[in-house]
Amino acid sequence: xxxxxxxxxxxxxxxxxxxxxxxxxxxxxxxxxxxxxxxxxxxxxxxxxxxxxxxxxxxxxxxxxxxxxxxxxxxxxxxxxxxxxxxxxxxxxxxxxxxxxxxxxxxxxxxxxxxxxxxxxxxxxxxxxxxxxxxxxxxxxxxxxxxxxxxxxxxxxxxxxxxxxxxxxxxxxxxxxxxxxxxxxxxxxxxxxxxxxxxxxxxx
Length: 204
Prior knowledge:
14% strand, 51% helix, 5 strands, five-stranded antiparallel beta sheet, alpha+beta
């Protein structure tokens, strides 16, 4: 999970801006993966560059399921490349995500914040980010809670299971409870597969 560094740019930042950043930092375009916007479960649009030292791959990913664009960095020199990106581009941090949640004034802005938060939560467990997720899971708006469940379904933290279970057992909205049960099945099945893979040395 920590082998991929994920950075969520602060808006506005899109595909063209990413191309300009890559050119400015001297990266070489390696591949373009066309996405499937009409199929949310499909492969997202992705552009991949190789760093100057040829030891990092920088991915521009347009995630249709979560409706978030972000940068992913892999390779032996990913930490160095991350520093270069952070120096050149304003990206979200736990503190800025907290500010974003604090400034959300309606359901739409809060849902957008939750979607960006979901990308931040793909790395190692962070109590500050988890607190934001828990906050959203208790929002008065059912649609916000449903988007939070979608985000939770993508996160592998052990703390997600009891949070989703609580929503399944106690949410006042029947639709939210039903979706929470489905998400709980997803995350528990994923945890079981991961445990099995570890026991068999990675073979499923």
